[in-house]
Amino acid sequence: MNSDNKTELEMNSDSASEEESVCSVFSDACGGCAEQHDGCPCNSCFHSLPDEADWKHISWLLLLAFRGDHEPEEVIPSLREELVAGKEALRKKFDEK
Fold this sequence. Notes:
Blueprint: H1 8-12, H2 22-29, H3 43-46, H4 55-66, H5 72-95
Helix pairs in contact: 2-5, 4-5
């Protein structure tokens, strides 16, 4: 926690736009697929997300939102960061070959 007693999620929540949702973060990470209800990506696109993403941390962030510790909007920046990091790790892995 910082000196204002804000958690990392609360500090990062300032950078989530009002139109952005958890579904839109995953849709963006899936190349824009928003075929399912509420703009969620389809199963095939979702399962094509890189294994290099920190899925334990992503699951934890979603659990925090689900159980009410944080609003979904508060976890969006951290979710986005984890999904981008996973894609960058995959890209780096292929560049090394």
